[in-house]
């Protein structure tokens, strides 16, 4: 009877506890059987720390990926693991789980080379690699540190600036002189160039050019580079009234103001064109700066000519085309840039009109100061009191100096600030032309797609009608228009990319120009005001000396 008795059934708590103990023994045996464990046990004093670090790393690994691979461990063992981790965290400042795992896994390759792994050790190493990969994914800071600080666009800008500063070119326009008499006369300017660009024949060049030559080189550059999306700085516009005065006047003093303004505008135009890394090495531009003697006479540059009327009609046709065709803009960058350009155009025009009014008022103030100085001089001569007469005469001299300061400030307002705004108004017109070229490319591309669809429909009709004699011609037309569509798309993408680069360069140049201009303008204002204070401080003792 005793032998036939069945053993008493075990409680569910004892069964779960025995199962947990078996699983715990399984993991412990896997850890003890690893070669890394045997290698660590052979060390002297650092073996205990390495085993503790291994247990900490395993505990941290199981904590990080506990949601993915659950482990059934008793609460008491979890508490013991937490107690073991705390001393390590106090001694070392909160180690990164990934760095701890890497420090433990790194010694493993030498041991694996010396001795083959057992199946349990292989399973353990595979599990560790899985946890390392999971920890790398859960730790985004490690991957973000490897990214470069500068993105591709900033790197391209830095490279472009460095390549642009590698060579230098400086152009001056001077010594304007009149050639001929009467209405057949014209102005000639001396163009001096200093450059380190290897494409030029000499480092220093000097040629003479007339105004029509400047217009001719601009037309050549615009016809060549504008259709591909490059911003070509516009040349100064012709002034029929101003040039007529120069031609008819016998005394050059009356037209010196107009000639000086034109000379300065031509110099700024050449330097602005030479600042472009591609335009300054263009063969036509180099010939303009290098070729001695007269250039071939530029055609289509006269304001009152058949070519001028033709250009006017072309502009009217382009304006009508803009109204009739509306491009469905899908690129938000181009849409924002067009709004920015329109806003800049309006603000620049308002600012230019305000500066012109300021220049006009300064000149009027200078004339009024001159009139006041003459009146003070006459009053000083008529005054009988010696000290008072001397003070009034001194006041007249100071007012004459103040008049000269006002004239200088008016010139600074015009040549430094007003002309810069005027140049950028013209540059914005060139930017708009570039955007219009992109619209033309888009229009050509879409028209080619429409024609291609018609050709395909015609081919399908011929196939349904079984007209085999006309099918080869239809297939040839379809292939031809497919090539045109592909070419139109490539040209549209290329001009869009070129415009992006040109606009980035335009923005950098605009910020740099305005920064330097504002600094120079403020310095001139401060110098004039300081000089004005010196004049009045010198006059103050004369007034106090009046008895």
Shape: elongated
- What's the overall average pLDDT, rounded? 76
Total helices: the number is 17
- Strand proportion: 5-15%
Q: Spell the H/E element sequence.
A: HHHHHHHHHEEEHHHHHHHH
Within the largest sheet, what's the order of strands? 1-2-3
| Low-confidence region ranges | 12-41, 43-157
Q: Between the first and last Cα atoms, what is the distance in angstroms?
A: 149 Å
Structural class: mainly alpha
Radius of gyration: 42 Å
Strand segment tally: 3
Summarize the biggest pleated sheet: 3 strands, antiparallel
Summarize the amount of helix as a percent range: over 70%
What does this structure look like?
This protein has helices at residues 12-32, 35-41, 47-64, 75-91, 97-105, 108-114, 119-138, 140-145, 152-164, 211-225, 240-248, 256-274, 283-290, 306-324, 332-382, 386-465, 471-544, and strands spanning 169-179, 186-195, 204-210. It is elongated and about 120 Å long. Helix 3 crosses helix 4 (75-91). The chain is mainly alpha-helical. Strands 1-2-3 form a 3-stranded antiparallel beta sheet. The chain has 17 helices and 3 strands. The N and C termini lie far apart (149 Å). Strand 2 and strand 3 form a beta hairpin.
């Amino acid at each position: 009877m005793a032998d036939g008795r069945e053993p008493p059934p075990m409680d569910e708590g004892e069964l779960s506890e025995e199962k947990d103990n078996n699983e715990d023994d399984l993991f412990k045996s896997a850890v003890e059987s690893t070669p890394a464990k045997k290698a660590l046990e052979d060390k002297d004093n650092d073996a205990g720390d390495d085993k503790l670090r291994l247990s900490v790393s395993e505990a941290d690994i199981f904590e990080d990926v506990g949601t993915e691979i659950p482990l059934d461990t008793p609460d008491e063992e979890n508490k013991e693991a937490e107690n073991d981790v705390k001393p390590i965290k106090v001694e070392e400042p909160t180690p990164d789980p990934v760095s701890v795992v890497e420090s433990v896994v790194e010694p493993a390759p030498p041991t694996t080379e010396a001795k083959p792994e057992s199946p349990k050790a292989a399973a353990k190493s595979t599990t560790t690699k899985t946890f390392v990969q999971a920890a790398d994914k859960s730790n985004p800071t490690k991957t973000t540190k490897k990214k470069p600080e500068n993105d591709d666009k900033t790197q391209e800008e830095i490279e472009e600036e460095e390549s642009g500063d590698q060579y230098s070119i400086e152009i001056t326009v001077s010594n304007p002189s009149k050639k001929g008499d009467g209405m057949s006369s014209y102005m000639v300017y001396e163009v001096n160039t200093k450059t380190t660009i290897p494409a030029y024949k000499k480092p220093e060049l000097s040629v003479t050019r007339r105004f029509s030559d400047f217009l001719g080189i601009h037309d050549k550059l615009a016809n060549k580079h504008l259709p591909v999306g490059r911003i070509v700085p516009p040349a100064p516009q012709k002034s029929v009234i101003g040039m007529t005065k120069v031609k008819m006047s016998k005394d050059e003093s009356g037209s010196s103001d107009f000639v000086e303004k034109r000379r300065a505008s031509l110099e700024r135009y050449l330097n602005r064109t030479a600042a472009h890394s591609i335009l300054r090495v263009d063969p036509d531009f180099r010939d303009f700066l290098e070729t001695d003697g007269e250039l071939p006479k530029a055609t289509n540059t006269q304001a009152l000519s058949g070519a001028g009327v033709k250009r006017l009609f072309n502009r009217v046709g382009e304006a009508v085309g803009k109204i009739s065709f509306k491009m469905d803009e899908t690129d938000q960058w181009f849409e924002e840039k067009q709004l920015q350009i329109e806003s800049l155009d309006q603000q620049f025009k308002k600012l230019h009109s305000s500066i012109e009014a300021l220049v006009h008022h300064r000149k009027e103030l200078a004339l009024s100061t001159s009139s006041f100085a003459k009146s003070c001089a006459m009053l000083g001569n008529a005054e009988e009191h010696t000290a008072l007469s001397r003070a009034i005469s001194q006041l007249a001299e100071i007012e004459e100096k103040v008049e000269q300061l006002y004239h200088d400030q008016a010139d600074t307002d015009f040549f430094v600030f007003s002309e810069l705004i005027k140049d950028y108004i013209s540059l914005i017109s060139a930017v708009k032309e570039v955007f219009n070229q992109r619209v033309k490319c888009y229009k050509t591309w879409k028209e080619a797609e429409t024609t291609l669809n018609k050709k395909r429909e015609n081919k399908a009709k011929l196939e349904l009608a079984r007209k085999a004699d006309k099918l080869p011609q239809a297939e040839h037309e379809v292939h031809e228009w497919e090539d045109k569509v592909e070419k139109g798309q490539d040209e549209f993408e290329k001009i869009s990319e070129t415009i992006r680069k040109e606009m980035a360069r335009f923005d950098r140049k605009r910020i740099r120009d305005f920064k330097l201009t504002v600094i120079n303008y403020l310095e001139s204002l401060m110098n004039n005001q300081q000089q004005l204070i010196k004049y009045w401080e010198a006059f103050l003792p004369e007034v106090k000396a009046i008895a």
